[in-house]
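Next comes this protein.

***
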Amino acid sequence: MSNQSLQSFGFVSGSGGGGSGTFHLVDDTSPQLGGDLDVQTFDLFTSATNGGIRLTPNGTGSINLDGTINFKRFASPPTPFEGGMYADDNDNLFFGVS
């Protein structure tokens, strides 16, 4: 589908191609981006209670974090947990591993 535009009521419409030219985003179980995703001033988050966000590269791919990385700070470090990364008030970094 070419010339697509996202409508605020939750579906994409476009011209060209076959069919009605309209489908619901929720019906696409494996959406793919055709270009960069600009989140502008918004956050990437999950609404699931204690839910995590996975960034999973394919094969030996890597995740590149360009810019400043801010760690959650604690007055006294909590009990280490696998995969946890955090800092104390003195900027000491802690990494939980198993």
Q: What stands out?
A: The beta strands are 2-6, 11-15, 22-24, 72-74, 85-88, 93-95. The two ends are 47 Å apart (CA to CA).
